[in-house]
Each structure stands twice: as C-alpha cells, then as structure tokens.
Amino acid sequence: MAVKILIVTGDAAESLEVLYPYQRLREEGYEVHIAAPQVKKLRFVVHDFEEGFDTYTEKPGYTWPADLAFTDVVTEDYAALVVPGGRAPEYLRNDPEVRRILAAFAEADKPIAQICHGPLITAAAGSLAGRKVTAYPALELDMKAAGAEFEDSETVVDGTLVSARAWPDHSRWMREFLTVLRGKAPVV
C-alpha cells in the first residue's frame, strides 16, 4: 500500500505551489490526494511580478479536480501534509475543517510542507507558536503575531515543519521536505 500525502487547497491557490509538489511527490512514489472545501474542479491562479507594480499580479492558472472534501479527510490515513499558497489560504484559514486537519498533523508531529501564504492556515490552527518559519515576506508580521520566529530565507526547516517563501524556492523546499518525509514515512 502506498504512503499517502494530503494537499489542502482551494480556488485561487497558486498553480505552481499545488502542482509542483503534487507531481514531485508522485514521482517519488507517494500517493497524493488534494482536499478542498468541496469536491469540484478547482481554479488556480498564477502570481508574478510586472514592472511598475508594487506587488505581484494575478492571472488565471490551471484547473485541477479535488479528490475529497475537508469534511471527508481522515488525518490518520495520511503521512504528511502540503499547504500551498496563493490567495486560497486567506479564506481557507476560516474553515474549521481545514484547521482541524492542520492541527491534527501538527499535534501528531507529521511532516508539513508550507509555502507562501500557506502558513496563514497553520497560524489559524494555532500551530506556529514557538516554531521557526519562512513565508511570503509580506507575512512576516502575521507569522510573528502567531508566535513564530520569522526568517526571510529560501527554506526553513524546524523539525517536521518545512516552509518556503514562494514558488521560486520550490527546488530547495521539496528537497528539504523529502529529506524529512523519507525519515518519517519512506516509500516502501
């Protein structure tokens, strides 16, 4: 039986931050499921920087089906969790089911990979206090308010919590996450 990994996301998630770990983890031999508020075709976005803009811009991205709804997630069935960024975490953090999922993984000390705005969900679940993290740099104050020590670097590993700033950091983020994951839940 394959080791299962869960990705929690929703509409307006950053395309690359969902699909890169999805494909990378499958390539390693893990079974990956995507959970969302409901089972449907999710609509992702692409964030990028353009000259003359003070912040990133957003364009339509890929679509991808969710495998299951948050309410149907049995956390004990999964070895690790991936929390992508984009705008999705801004509204997902208000969902008690996604907070339940996140808290269960954190309390069980299962590997969690979070990127960009994904740590907003981890913060809402009360799972960042005393942890060292990175996130999209504009979230520094949010991370500190959640009780975390913020470091503006490509990737931060704190035990089983692996965080990155944004999609340009994917290679190191997944390399570090896979190191943690192989130690806790190797593919057999």
Q: What quaternary form is this?
A: single chain
Structural class: alpha/beta
Low-confidence stretches: none
Which geometry do the CA atoms define? globular
> Overall pLDDT, averaged?
97
Helical content class: 25-40%
State the distance separating the first and last CA atoms. 8 Å
Pfam family, one: DJ-1_PfpI
InterPro entries: C56_PfpI-like (IPR006286), Class_I_gatase-like (IPR029062), DJ-1/PfpI (IPR002818)
Protein name: DJ-1/PfpI family protein
Domain DJ-1/PfpI: 4-178
Description of the molecule:
Belongs to the peptidase C56 family. This is DJ-1/PfpI family protein. It holds the Pfam family DJ-1_PfpI. There is one protein chain. With 188 residues, the protein is an alpha/beta fold. The chain is 30% helix and 27% strand. It is built from 6 helices and 11 strands. The strands form 3 sheets. It has a 7-stranded mixed β-sheet, sandwiched between helices. Strand 1, helix 1 and strand 2 form a beta-alpha-beta unit. The radius of gyration is 15 Å and the shape is globular.
Summarize the structure.
The protein is an alpha/beta fold and 188 residues long. It has helices at residues 15-27, 88-92, 96-107, 119-124, 140-145, 170-184, and strands at residues 4-8, 31-36, 41-48, 57-65, 68-69, 80-83, 112-115, 132-133, 149-150, 155-158, 161-164. It comes from Streptomyces yangpuensis.
